[in-house]
Amino acid sequence: MNKWLCTLLCISLCFSDTILRAQRTGIYDTTISFMGSNRALSIYVPPSYNPAIKYRLLIGLHGLGDTCYNYRNALITTVGWANGFGNTIFVFPEAANRNADYFQPAGGEDIIPNSRDFMMAQYHIDSQNVVLQGFSLGGRAALRYGLDHPTDFKGLLLNTPAVQGVKEAVNGHAQSYGFNYANAPQIPIFITLGDQDLTYQSPLDSTYEQLVLHDGPVRFTVVAGMGHQVPSLALNQTAFPFFSFPAHAGTDAEAVQVYPALWVCNSSHAAPSLLLRNSGSDTLRQIRYQYTLGSSTNYQSWSGTLAPFQHAIVPLNVNNATPADNIISVQIDSLNNNLADTVLGNNSLTGSFYLPAATLSSLSEGFEGTDFPPPGWTLQQSGDFYTAWEQDNSIALTGSNSATAFNTILIFDNLGRSDALITPPVNVSALAAPVLNFDVSFTYDRYTPPYFTANVDFADTLEVLASTDCGAHFSSIYRKGGAELATYANPVINPLNLNDLFPMPADSNWRMESIDLNALKTAGTPAIFKFNYISGLGGAINIDNVYIGTNTAVKNHPQSTLLIAPNPAHDLLQIQLSQAALEQLDLFDMSGRLLRSETASGKDTHHMQLPVSGLPAGLYLLHVTTSDGVTIRKISVLN
Questions:
Q1: I need a surface site. Which of 2, 385, 428, 517 has the fewest CB within 10 A?
Q2: Angstrom distance (rounded) from CA 236 to CA 361
Q3: pLDDT score of 14
Q4: SS3 for 390?
Q5: CA angle 567-572-573, nearest 5°?
Q6: Tell me, what's the pLDDT at 352?
Q7: What gap in Å lies between CA 585 and CA 106, rounded to an integer?
Q8: How far is 417 from 532, CA to CA, in rounded Å?
């Protein structure tokens, strides 16, 4: 009898201990057994916890370099989530270590369901009201796990999910972090991003686009003035009603994105297109929208059937556009035959498309203008945070500017992705001996032990392609990368920050490349040229003085042997050459039009003059033809 009494007493005490532990409230920390060791959990339970009531459970995942303790304390105490979310219990599981993602090591993401199960065993949790939240890399892990297990959660609350580049966002890795976008329709997803958090703008824009294209109930809010941080309590509070009713009540269409059209032949324009989606609770059967090109406003309608969160991609008719009207503004006007749109904040957007001016007879471009890309040029962008061509105001062979791009292993993996800088069409068929010349400066990166076990080069590639059918097809006419493209004797060794990636080239670190274009003459049509910069995860490139015209064996004379003065000039340029012989001077405007020309026939072949009076103030390109070739210099005229 005593034996049974002891047993019953033991059971009673153990049960009582479980109840006491289950009722623990406030901030506390504990551990659970996970993957063969103890894993920390940081917890907050409202002091007013009532076991008779079902509570929402929020599982929060911290970012890289943080801990579950710090993250819990920051959100619960500093940001005010303790009082901001009613009837909510919080658990913050620790990642494998401060410098690991939740998916490291393999199977590490199972700390998420283990944390949920632990809390549900201790407290009265509503199993249909579990929210997975994460910040930075924790947000990225929450997005991946939530899309893999959409029915486990009420919704995903993602504060700047640190998707590692556009390549990752579009599942461009062959074997890596993938997002199961096919499951997006099954789970509401609430994303925030600070507009000052430049690193993640492009990846999250692409993530949002993928979720929209897969018809997911997603809301994406960009917060003005905010960097890489969790936004205000008030904004995060709006996520919970969204999880219950993701669609806006009534009729609501969202203008998501304008997809640019890049090519044009004669007067037949390639049409840009518009990504629309239904963000309301009512089915949409008609969307009327206006779009503005310059001073011209046009109306167009889409008809069909869009259930909530379904999307459509529709063309925009721009056949009446002119080269000055390559910016298009879209505004949703009405829905379902004159019904008002209930939410106006997502109705407008602006995009651009390629519509070059008339075909050029030749081209000289030094990237000195205030616009980039220059007038008539366009960019074909991958959307990555880097790689994209831009104007460089600190490096140039001549003048003040050049075009530049770069890649590095220090940010994201964008290996194999490329960005293109594209010229206007040029009538190479009319040129006697057409050639494409440009000056290039390039270096790549090399890492040595102890950063790698052996020397490893990360080297980008420059490819120039040509099209004679308005961009429908391109053929490679030049391709160099790594040491072959480099203009420095050695690569950059072990760059550990962004400043290390950008050496300042001397004149000797520039090389002129010349490409024979005679093979393009047989097409009899204008040619478009694409400077395609392809990521090898390392490199910094500048190009200057792009010239498409007659081959005159262009050569850059050392500055010490060629004197051009004054520069800036008012009335007369003096050109003196101490070596070789002057033959001809040609002055072009920045669009490639020949304005002034002088020959050395019967004159001093080491000293010439060129009048510039009467020319508008601005920048010009002076081609100095000598017995050794041609030197191109940028000239400033002040009149």
A1: 2
A2: 57
A3: 43
A4: strand
A5: 45
A6: 75
A7: 68
A8: 10
Give per-residue pLDDT as tens, 449-471.
999 999 999 999 999 999 998 78
**Local structure of residue 433 (DSSP, 8 states):** S
Burial class (CB in 10 A: 0-12, 13-18, 19+), 504: exposed
- pTM of this prediction exceeds 0.85: no
- What per-residue confidence (pLDDT) applies to 357? 67
* Tokens read off for 102: 């939740």
Residue keyed to tokens 């920051």: 74
What pLDDT, on a 0 to 100 scale, did the predictor assign at position 17? 40
Residue 612 CA to residue 30 CA, distance in Å, equals 81
What per-residue confidence (pLDDT) applies to 265? 59
List, in sequence order, the alpha helices (H) in 98-197: 111-122, 137-148, 166-169
Peptide bond into 105 cis (omega under 30): yes
Contact 133/85 with Cβ under 8 angstroms?
A: no
Residue with tokens 């990636």: 501
Which two tokens mark 606?
Answer: 């080491």
The pair of structure tokens assigned to 34 is 């996970």
Distance CA(537)–CA(559), nearest Å, equals 34
Query: Is the separation of the CB atoms in 159 and 134 below 8 Å?
Result: yes
- Both tokens assigned to 448: 């040595």
Q: What domains can you pick out in the chain, each with its CATH number?
A: 2-244 (3.40.50.1820), 253-352 (2.60.40.10), 363-550 (2.60.120.200), 562-637 (2.60.40.1930)
Give CA separation, 27 vs 30, 56, 88, 132, in Å.
10, 17, 13, 19
166: left (phi over 0), alpha (psi -120 to 50) or beta: alpha
What's the CA gap between 350 and 272, in Å, rounded?
12
Using alpha carbons, select from 351, 353, 354, 415 the residue that is nearest to residue 384: 415
Segments of the chain with pLDDT less than 50: 1, 3-21, 560
Among 428, 432, 438, which residue's Cα sits nearest to residue 403?
438
What backbone phi and psi angles, to 5 degrees, belong to 30? -150, -175
| Lookup: tokens for 504 | 């300042």
- List, in order, residues 6 or more apart from 225 with CB less than 8 Å away: 194, 195, 196
* Count of residues in the chain: 639
DSSP 515-577: EE-GGGGGG-S-BEEEEEEE--S-EEEEEEEEEEEE---B----TTTEEEESSSBSSEEEEEE
For residue 606, count other CB atoms closer than 10 A to its CB: 15
Burial class (CB in 10 A: 0-12, 13-18, 19+), 571: exposed
Q: Is the peptide bond before 450 cis (omega within 30 degrees of 0)?
A: yes
In b/e form, how buried is each residue of 93-131, taking b as 16+ CB within 10 angstroms?
A: bbbbeeeebbbeeeebbebbebbbebbeebbebeeebbb
